[in-house]
């Protein structure tokens, strides 16, 4: 059974195919309107979500399929103590494909090992978030026309930000990638991600706390929210939450073709005044997320 738990479950060739299909879906949505007729997606969301859950629902419905969902841990049998493994066996009886978001790292993998249908990881704790990365990759491709030869700045909560971990894992497979890791000391990229995806692959990178010092050289700036829900104490969160706030004034030193990204939700990291800047790509990411998930659902159902 083919599932998507980690972005490296997909080869570079498969990512290129998904990006092509998503672009075709954007141009000719009518061609795909019945591609998944009669199929059911189960959306199991045990953590808050707006974009990811609704984009999965929108994607499945745009393919002619339908959706059943759990929208909070409190409203499901998880609250009664049901294991993820038992949930997998149960929901396999009702659906053809599942997407899961869960606060525990590894939950999607456990679901996939016990499910009889393909499983898509829609975010497992502070670990990874491969479909956000597909969204990000489609956006980068549409903006830059390539994945190679890019200087990519990742800024904010690199420790708990699962979208950052998956994006680094994906981009480090292309040539000419350079990473600039911008975060407070306490929110640095976890050493396991740095070792596996950056150091062992010999990718050039630098680490800094100072966004302004590195902003002029970036092709992509990926801003992130400080992940309040993963902090052990509120005091640390309050101290760190506004470490970086991107404003139009700061962007004066940036490249004219900088691509400003954010997985959203944003809190304070990007001032709303930046939204009118043509370099702001975060609402384009939202739109792209629907189409790349359509392409992914179609692929996994075809291979099931
Ligand atoms: C991200 C997530 O859930 O990790 N959101 C999303 O899926 N677009 C980022 C975040 O919550 O900060």
Q: How would you characterize the overall build of this protein?
A:
The chain is 37% helix and 15% strand. With 304 residues, the chain is α/β, with parallel strands linked by helices. The chain has 2 domains: 7-129 and 288-302, Aspartate/ornithine carbamoyltransferase (Rossmann fold); 130-285, Aspartate/ornithine carbamoyltransferase (Rossmann fold, 3-Layer(aba) Sandwich). The strands form 2 sheets. The chain has a 5-stranded parallel beta sheet, with helices on one face. A 4-stranded parallel beta sheet has the order 2-1-3-4. Strand 1 (40-45), helix 2 and strand 2 (66-70) form a beta-alpha-beta unit. The longest helix has 22 residues, at 282-303. Bound molecules: N-carbamoyl-L-aspartate. N-carbamoyl-L-aspartate (NCD) is lined by residues 51-52, 123, 129, 132, 162-163, 225, 263-265.
Key phrases:
single chain; 304 residues; alpha/beta; Rossmann fold; 2 domains; 5-stranded parallel sheet; 4-stranded parallel sheet; globular; binds N-carbamoyl-L-aspartate
Give the gist of this structure.
By secondary structure, the chain is an alpha/beta fold. The structure holds N-carbamoyl-L-aspartate.
Radius of gyration: 19 Å
Order of helices and strands: HEHEHEHEHEHEHEHEHEH
The amount of beta strand, in percent, is 15-25%
Number of strands: 9
How is the quaternary structure best described?
Answer: single chain
Tell me the span between the first and last alpha carbons.
Answer: 6 Å
CATH class of the largest domain: Alpha Beta
- Determine the CATH topology of the largest domain: Rossmann fold
Give the domain tally.
Answer: 2
Average pLDDT taken over every residue: 97
The helical percent reads 25-40%
* Order of strands in the sheet with most strands: 7-6-5-8-9
Largest sheet: number of strands, sense, barrel closure:
5 strands, parallel
CATH-defined architecture of the largest domain: 3-Layer(aba) Sandwich
User: What is the number of helices?
Assistant: 10
By secondary-structure content and strand pairing, the structural class works out as alpha/beta
Apparent shape? globular
- Unreliable residue stretches: none
**Bound ions, cofactors and other small molecules, one mention each:** N-carbamoyl-L-aspartate
């Amino acid at each position: 059974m083919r599932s998507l738990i980690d972005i490296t479950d997909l080869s570079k060739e498969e990512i290129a195919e998904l990006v092509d299909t998503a672009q075709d879906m954007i141009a000719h949505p009518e061609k795909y309107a019945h591609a998944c007729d009669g199929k059911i997606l189960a959306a199991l969301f045990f953590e808050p979500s707006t974009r990811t859950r609704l984009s999965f629902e929108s994607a499945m419905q745009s393919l002619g399929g339908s959706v059943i969902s759990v929208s909070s841990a409190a409203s499901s049998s998880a609250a009664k103590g049901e294991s993820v493994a038992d949930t997998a066996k149960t929901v396999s009886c009702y659906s053809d494909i599942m997407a899961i978001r869960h606060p525990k790292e590894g939950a999607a993998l456990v679901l996939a090992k016990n499910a009889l249908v393909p499983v898509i990881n829609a975010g497992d704790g502070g670990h990874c978030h491969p479909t956000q990365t597909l969204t990000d990759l489609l956006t980068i491709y549409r903006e830059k026309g390539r994945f190679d030869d890019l200087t990519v700045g990742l800024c904010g909560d690199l420790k708990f930000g699962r979208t950052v971990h998956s994006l680094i894992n994906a981009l480090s497979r292309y040539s000419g990638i350079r990473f600039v890791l911008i975060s407070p000391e306490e929110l640095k990229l976890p050493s396991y991600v740095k070792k596996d995806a950056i150091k062992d692959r010999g990718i050039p990178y630098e680490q800094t706390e100072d966004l302004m010092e590195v902003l002029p050289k970036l092709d992509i700036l990926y801003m992130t929210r400080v992940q309040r829900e993963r902090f052990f104490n509120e005091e640390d969160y309050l101290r760190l939450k506004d470490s970086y706030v991107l404003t139009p004034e700061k962007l004066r030193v940036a490249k004219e073709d900088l691509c400003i990204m954010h997985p959203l939700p944003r809190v304070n990291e990007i001032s709303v005044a930046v939204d009118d800047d043509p370099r702001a790509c975060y609402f384009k990411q939202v739109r792209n997320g629907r189409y790349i998930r359509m392409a992914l659902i179609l692929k996994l159902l075809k291979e099931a």
